[in-house]
Fold this sequence. Notes:
The chain has helices at about 5-10, 20-30, 45-55, 70-75, 90-100, 115, 120-125, 165, 180-190, 195-210, 220-230, 235-250, 255-265, and strands spanning about 35-40, 60-65, 75-80, 85-90, 100-105, 130, 135-140, 145-150, 170-175. The strands form 3 sheets. The chain has a 5-stranded parallel β-sheet with strand order 2-5-8-1-9, with helices on both faces. By secondary structure, it is of the alpha/beta class. The radius of gyration is 21 Å and the shape is elongated. The chain contains 13 helices and 9 strands. It folds into 2 domains: about 5-175, P-loop containing nucleotide triphosphate hydrolases (Rossmann fold); about 180-265. Helix 11 runs antiparallel to helix 12 (about 235-250). The structure holds adenosine-5'-diphosphate. Adenosine-5'-diphosphate binds next to helix 3, helix 9 and helix 11.
Amino acid sequence: MDTSILSMNREARPYYLAVANEEQVFKAAFRQGLSILLKGPTGCGKTRFVQAMAHDLGRPLITVACHDDLTTADLVGRFLLHGGETRWVDGPLTRAVREGAICYLDEVVEARQDTTVVLHPLADHRRQLPLERLGETLDAAPGFCLVVSFNPGYQSVLKDLKDSTRQRMVAIEFGFPSAEIEEKIVASEAGIGIEQAAKLVRLGQAIRRLGSGGLREVASTRVLIAAGRLMLEGLAPAEAARTAIAGPLTDDAEVAGGLIKMIEVYLGGEAAAH
Ligand code: ADP
């Protein structure tokens, strides 16, 4: 898939292949005005899924990548100086509430704890956003939907989502797709043949079976696609996998050595040349 063509053609649905009944569940929650928690490892399709759902539901999508410096003001808005006078400027969350957009807070636990508090009245039945600095409370426009993502494997105990936040949401669990589906995704996204994609997927599944054996995160669909893209450029499969899979997954020489052996087994011996 070519992302640039998609962004030029606003009508095209972002390519998303359903893995289970996640589309049905998302749309049901949306219609009921419920907030949605997408749980799952990095690179398993959560962001792409939200893009496809926003398209299907005909709602604008406002995405915020959360980080530990993100303040409530970054989300809600602040007064800024404009030619000698101060003017209120809406933050992305406030814009979404006013426009009835889907607001996607990616990796929400990365945000500071105080920022999640502002989400509570929005996330539950009240659907309200208090703008303390303006002394007003906004009712969310119809179509507004709060979606947050969370990677349970990756978070430390300190960075768990508060129970009070979790219980205001319905959770959709994301895992990696079945081999058959993942092969189609990798082939389509990387532009390679299905046999090549199938080999990468078998390698990915073998790495996933290692579980936490020295790896913080297992091989995601995203890294398999990246390896496929390098193969499309003519790199030998093992070289592509070493660069796009083993390198990003670990800095530990021993663990990397183990991954490279697996790559040789699943993709051929080219990696041994290095
Ligand atoms: P996450 O948000 O979970 O980190 P992304 O949505 O960015 O992951 O997915 C990473 C990449 O994997 C996407 O850019 C897309 O190319 C691909 N992908 C993963 N799952 C799917 C799927 N079910 N359908 C289509 N593409 C997918």
